[in-house]
Amino acid sequence: MPPRHIQLSAPDITSEERRLVDEVLTSGQLSFGPVLEAFEREFAERFGARHAVAMSSGTAALHVAVIAAGVGEGDVVITSPFSFVASANSILFERGVPHFVDIDPVTLTMDPAATVHAIEALAPQGRLRAVLPVHLFGRTVEMDAILAAARRHDVVVIEDACEAIGASADGVFAGRWGDASAFGFYPNKQMTTGEGGVLLTDRDDWARLARSLRNQGRSDSGTWLAHERLGFNYRMDTISAAIGLAQIRRLGELLHKREAVAMRYNALLAGLDGVTPLAPPRVGMQLSWFVYIIRLAEGIDRGRLQAALAARGIDSRPYFPPIHLQPIYVERFGFRPGMFPNTEAAGASLLALPFHGNLAADDIDYVCEAVTEEVGSMKVMG
Ligand SMILES: *Cc1c(COP(=O)(O)O)cnc(C)c1O
Q1: Which residues participate in catalysis according to the annotation?
Q2: Do residue 201 and residue 312 come from a single domain?
């Protein structure tokens, strides 16, 4: 029998994605066109938004939102230090300054009370431009108080919903609280377009600006080579949009399959000493499963566990190294260890196990058996 290899993630592609991609290839229209428009329309409709602007990545969508927010040199944006680095980088692209708020140790998302406190403290100083909450690991940030404080002080809200498509709280989808939100479709996300992203907004002015910025700053007068502003090539190509169109139509199914995998993991790892799964959502909150994360108890050496799993053909990955301790952030802003203890504790103890919608029950069982044995032996060795 060949040795097993269980990879961390995999996209879920069917004949429907292939059919739509083939249609685009046959049509010859590989940039813009009706398939891109259909993707944007159906994406917006799925979440009840006025505009979905397809972009080349989630990072591009975040960057454009930060520009729309008017962030410039020295402007402050409140965000989470526990995220994929792109959420904070989007602030740096415009020479803004990230003001990090530590996470809640249980939900792993920005502490709402501390965020409100930061808004109240920073707004009167005049440089606070935006709040950028990150809906991490498919769980929404508690938005109500944050949103109210931001509105009170006329500060815009940009949601990083790249890991939370389809998640909701009290009937509101991730990405539907703020002025705009960013979604990302990298192949490990809940839905994919290969590379790609969407900026979702109800604001006509932001949508118009985003369409211009993604297309070299062209005016929307229809004149092909009139560049009104400094823009980018942040366009999503139509082949990606075809994959996205099939995936957004399948989103319910995609999320359902992922949830079933997570439930099997939860059941098999329940009660295992030294390993804690992510906290269940509160009543009224619906998760969108992005990764399957376990928290390791203090005495368990994550690196050794990873090596032991790798020897059995099981991929795993620490999530996330804190953003404030990334070299470029230390160098530019002088962040130091100890500044955001909940983020640092999470960054030191979380491990992502193989996770995607088509992960076979047999593979989940194999991973859980391995985790159980390895963690058990580490506890004994103490
Ligand atoms: C994936 C991700 C992004 C960026 O998406 P890309 O499409 O890879 O640019 C941004 N923020 C978070 C939290 C993400 O997980």
Answers
A1: 189
A2: no
Q: Which residues line ligand 1 (CB under 6 A)?
A: 57-59, 83-84, 86-87, 134, 160, 162-163, 184, 186, 197
Task: Report the separation in Å between the CA atom of 307 and the middle of ligand 1, taken as the mean of its atom positions.
Answer: 27
pLDDT tens string 341-353: 999 999 999 999 9
Calculate how far, in angstroms, residue 192's C-alpha sits from the geometric centre of ligand 1. Answer: 12
Model pLDDT for residues 284-313, shown as the tens digit of each residue: 999 999 999 999 999 999 999 999 999 999
Number of domains in the chain: 2
* pTM, full prediction: 0.97
The model's pLDDT over 50-67, given as tens digits with 9 standing for 90+, comes to 999 999 999 999 999 999
The residue among 214, 249, 284 that closes a domain is 249
Among 62, 159, 162, residue to substitute to test ligand 1 (most atoms within 8 Å of Cβ): 162
* Structural domain includes residue 47: yes
Domain check: are 138 and 226 in the same one? Answer: yes
Mutate to test the pocket of ligand 1, among 163, 190, 192, 293 (most ligand atoms within 8 A of CB): 163
CA of 61 to the centre of ligand 1 (A): 9
Q: Which domain holds residue 374?
A: 251-381
User: 121-137: per-residue pLDDT in tens?
Assistant: 999 999 999 999 999 99
Average pLDDT of the chain, as a whole number:
96
At residue 323, what is the residue type? I
Q: Which of 198, 225, 249 is the last residue of a domain?
A: 249
Which CATH number belongs to the domain containing residue 184 in this structure?
3.40.640.10
The protein residue whose alpha carbon is closest to atom 2 in ligand 1 is 162
